[in-house]
Amino acid sequence: MKIEVFAVLKDFYDKQFTIGETLKDISELKRYLITQKPEAEGILGACRFAVNDELVGSHYNLKADDRISVIPPSSGG
Amino acid sequence: MKIEVFAVLKDFYDKQFTIGETLKDISELKRYLITQKPEAEGILGACRFAVNDELVGSHYNLKADDRISVIPPSSGG
Amino acid sequence: MTGSPLSRQAAGAENILSDQPLQLAELLAASHHPGAGAVVLFSGDVRINNLGKEVAYLEFEAQEKLAVKMIREILDQATQKWQLNIAVAQHRLGKVGISECAVVVITASPHRKEAYDANRYIMDRLKHEVPIWKCEYFTDGTHKWGGNCNCAEITGNPAEHIYEFNSTAHEK
Amino acid sequence: MTGSPLSRQAAGAENILSDQPLQLAELLAASHHPGAGAVVLFSGDVRINNLGKEVAYLEFEAQEKLAVKMIREILDQATQKWQLNIAVAQHRLGKVGISECAVVVITASPHRKEAYDANRYIMDRLKHEVPIWKCEYFTDGTHKWGGNCNCAEITGNPAEHIYEFNSTAHEK
């Protein structure tokens, strides 16, 4: 699956990257990302997730070809 | 003293006119105007008065050369 | 406009009353300020219908000297109260057509809450207190002097108003 | 923009996100409507100072597809709720300089209360919910990703916000 991160998350991860491992749902993805960068745990706890440009909950079941956006709290305007 | 009326009051009085009589204060002026046009009593009850472009209360003592504006409720904007 | 050291009047805002079309774009362009994160513009336009009838145009009349003085006071008080960077108001006089702007109020402040609140406060006081009147001319040939402010019927005092703006800030 | 039979989108309002300066004057000129007595424009400008430091410029980034979709939904919901004649929002992306407009919201309705309330509601939801982020670049060479929405620290839920706008209308 393809991951894209935004804003402050770019200080922790590449803007875009691919995950080969099979991950069941968003909760598992979140744990995976924390394992990669434990210092991002705080901000990840405040993030929403979108799959193929739709917001999803933590129980969304991930598919191999999903395109996932990791969305920190907004600060527009 | 010189009187100027505005808006709906122009349906009852000339836009501008002069009063020769001696009138003590704004209350007396209001009674005078009602005597001239009893049908304006309702609207006059809702009017404010200004003397020489300053709002005044009903006890303001009128002078012979005062310029008085009779001000119906606003409806700007 | 002397409220805050940061405050100033927008260019072109000198004419508080005008018998010419109000220049909203110019006023707005002049109302950005380096210290302001929020600019709110209100435009009161002439609606095509009122009281169930089709409006042809409005005509505005004012006690001009008193109206200008009162609008300046309201702008100054709002500037003080909300520490505005910019506060501007202009009102048309004479004939104003459908969709034309009859009154514009612009407020600017560091954060958005103050700009919104101050703008509403200025409009609210302007409508209730300032000696400006509109006469509505309908397409059926009739006309009617506007009586937007009928607070005195309720309060029993022509100087006491019931404001839409929900605040105790109206006490002077 | 399909809420009311009277509603429409202002000309030039197609580009909800734009890397070019927002055309406030054109958007405003296109936002007068014969059925609307009130037009409210909010401009969120870049302030020269924040967090006690001098700002050089901001840079905005978005999850563009999701942001556009969410802004459209917010505009539609506001149009329905307040029966607006017009509801428009545009947000800058990329680098935005001091006093430039980063976000504009325009609402128009028959009476002024609805235009003010809807405008504030749209801005409020836009700031909290829509995936747009700002990075502040200061003149001292440092930069900081904006975190205006830290509601989750209080509510414990990234999808639950504390709105400035005082209403229960935020429940979807």
Identify the quaternary structure here.
heterotetramer
From the coordinates shown, what is the CATH architecture of chain C? Alpha-Beta Complex
Low-confidence segments of chain A: none
Largest interface: C-D, 36 and 36 residues
> What's the alpha carbon Rg of chain C, rounded to whole Å?
16 Å
The total count of helices of chain C amounts to 4
Q: What would you call the structural class of chain A? A: alpha+beta
Counting structural domains of chain C, the number is 1
Beta fraction of chain A: 15-25%
Q: What's the alpha carbon Rg of chain A, rounded to whole Å?
A: 11 Å
Structural class of chain C: alpha+beta
Low-confidence stretches of chain C: 1-6, 167-172
Structure description:
The complex is a heterotetramer, with two copies of chain A (77 residues) and two copies of chain C (172 residues). Chain A has 77 residues and is α+β, with helices and mostly antiparallel strands. Chain A has a single domain (2-71), classed as Ubiquitin-like (UB roll), CATH 3.10.20. Chain A contains two helices and five strands, in the order ββααβββ. Chain A has helices spanning 26-36, 41-45, and strands at 2-5, 16-18, 48-51, 54-56, 67-71. A five-stranded mixed beta sheet of chain A has the order 2-1-5-3-4, with no helix packed on it. In chain A, a hairpin with a 2-residue loop joins strand 3 and strand 4 (54-56). The radius of gyration of chain A is 11 Å and the shape is globular. The N and C termini of chain A lie far apart (31 Å). In chain A, 30% of the residues are buried. Chain C has 172 residues and is of the alpha+beta class. Chain C has one domain (17-161): Molybdopterin biosynthesis MoaE subunit (Aldehyde Oxidoreductase, domain 3, Alpha-Beta Complex), CATH 3.90.1170. Chain C has four helices and nine strands. In chain C, a hairpin with a 2-residue loop joins strand 3 and strand 4. In chain C, helix 2 packs antiparallel against helix 3. The longest helix of chain C is centred in the middle third of the chain and has 19 residues, at 64-82. The radius of gyration of chain C is 16 Å and the shape is globular. In chain C, 49% of the residues are buried.
